[in-house]
Amino acid sequence: MLVDLSRPVWKPSLASCAILPLFVKSPSYSGVGEGSLTIGSHSYADFMTYFGAFSLKKWRLYTGVDDLTPVLVLESSSPVHITLTEMIYRRLEKRVIREVDDAPLHTQDGWYRYVVSYPEGLDAQLVSFTVTTGDASAALRNVSYCADVPKRRDIRIEIATTTYLKEQQVTNNIDMIRKELLEKEEWGDYFHLTVVDNGRTLSGSVCAGNPAITLIPNGNVGGAGGFAAGMIHAVESGWATHVLLMDDDVTVCPESFKRSLRLLEYASDEYATATIAGAMLSTANFEMQQEDIGVISPERSLRSFKPRLIMDREYDITFNEELVPASDTKGLYSAWWYSCFPVRRIKENGLPIPLFYRRDDVEYATRIQEKEPLKFITLNGVCVWHDAFDLRWNAAVEVYLATRNMLIQEAFTPDAGYSMPAMIQLMRDNLIKHGRRFDYASMELICDAIEDYLKGPEYYRHPVGEKLFKQARAKAEKLQPLAQIPGVPDAIDIFELEQTANDENVVPEVVKPVETESKGIVHRIARKIKRSVRPQEAETAPVRESFDRNKTVIIPNDGWCRPWRILQHAGKALAVDTTGQHAVMRVRDDRRNEELRSRFEHLAQLLLEDTAVQQAYRDGREGMTSFEFWHGYLEEAKR
């Protein structure tokens, strides 16, 4: 029996409408409007796109059906010409499979219905089609890729999202899920929605009287606590087979949920318990895929398993489906902006550790992999749009929480590449870089993070996350409007600043000095004399500063830019945010720099010598991830 596995999408979400080639490529379709897709006369629509193509190789991999071949079902208001196409990564080519000349059927309301089988034996990464019109325009509807697959599994998905003071964003997602899934006869029996409101600002009316939507008022226990509450509900309600954790501040296409359900319903035994890792596309560059699977690097930082890809390019959407981790790849995880896994994993492995925010998803995946290999499912079109991390610098998150939670996460559940010396070196490198940017507040936050980690697990048995996060925010530097900072420009070209301030964007000039032999000898003698008198100079001569205290340079305020070239001889730095309208004036203070580096090295030594605190975290993990612990923790947070 033919089953509808996925449907090309031509109705973009509002946020991504500007990137129509993610959905369909057509010179006569604007992407605006409801319902069917209308193609003008003597025009075409090409569906070899991120949301339009069928990932043949991936579907075969995940279902275990080696000879799976799709059938295209398409209804049009006028006769059209259909060309089947395929995209083969190994040869980087898009090819025509065949021109379709099959006579269409007719629906009861007079539309033309094409049922077209792709040839057997295809060895393509992606298959797709192009529709061409003649003298008359044509509207398309009910387009799908179907296939004959084994009996489906019983899958019911609890979508759990947690929110804090983001009423508009989460309400938009609730409305979309309700209209596109819960109120649709075809999908409503397979999805429920749980919204955990950490800010307790949402009205019960957001449920719109739908029994498939549950609203849980919660204390502010961060993302980890919010997702823990959602996971508890998914287990204790007894309805769901899977839980899908999703951020509140994302834009998502309904087709992502539908493809996730179909992937799980027809998964092979090998992938029946796999985690679906939804990709994150950027809201700054709607076509850019930031990550689908993450990995812990040997240097202990987190990075994407894949490079950044531009998903309106045929090459990149094909390459994206080619990259599958080897079975022995270590340190993989699925970020919880969109991650779907079996409820039984919660029963077997417990709930998250109480980190408040950051690295809870990393720890959870690592914990599962202590018992069994963790497989991941990724697919074009299963994704969310999310603000890019490198465009929303927040030192309380990117410095304090990232540092503290890395230490706590690795203490509770060390991954296969665990190394305390490597973590210390990563923290030291970050500390030195912040010092070179004159960002002494961030240097202090790194030290605070280590001290808070050393308080041990007993300290985190109570909801202290919000308090510590507020303390970090209060200590981080405060940006002001440019107009309130004396002596600075009234406007800054942030694009030019990003290009010119970052050393990574500057091609160094290599100039080979031309010296005579005698001049070279003189210079070598002079250097020897200088080295020989340096000790006496240090004792008797006044210290000369190697920088100009009055020299001010302009740099981005984030911790990812490398402006070492322009900061080298500067005494001040105007650190500007990504809008180019807010900034803070940093003043060079070498003595403060040295004090904080000394404080860090003292703490680093404590980390190297410690065994008791680390063991306490390890011993406390089972208790602090139990349902009993989390019930008490969440009740305490509400008070």
Key structural traits:
639 residues; alpha+beta; seven-stranded mixed sheet; six-stranded antiparallel sheet; 17 helices; 34% helix; globular
Describe the structure.
- With 639 residues, the protein is of the alpha+beta class.
- The strands form 6 sheets. It has a 7-stranded mixed beta sheet, with helices on both faces. Strands 1, 2, 4, 7, 8 and 10 form a 6-stranded antiparallel beta sheet that branches. Strands 15-25-17-18-21 form a 5-stranded mixed beta sheet, with helices on one face.
- β17 (279-282) and β18 (288-291) form a beta hairpin.
- α3 (222-237) packs across α17, α8 (395-412) runs parallel beside α10 and α9 (420-436) runs antiparallel to α15 (590-609).
- The longest helix has 24 residues, at 517-540.
Summarize the entry for a quick read.
The chain has 17 helices and 29 strands. It has 639 residues and is α+β, with helices and mostly antiparallel strands.
Low-confidence stretches: 510-519, 521-543
Number of helices: 17
Strands side by side in the biggest sheet: 13-12-11-14-23-16-24
* Strand tally: 29
How far is the N terminus from the C terminus?
55 Å
Helix/strand/pairing category: alpha+beta
Sketch the major β-sheet: 7 strands, mixed
Q: State the share of residues found in helices, binned by percent.
A: 25-40%
Strand composition percent = 15-25%
Q: Which term fits the overall shape?
A: globular
Kindly provide the radius of gyration, computed on alpha-carbon positions and rounded to a whole number of angstroms.
29 Å
User: What number is the mean pLDDT?
Assistant: 91
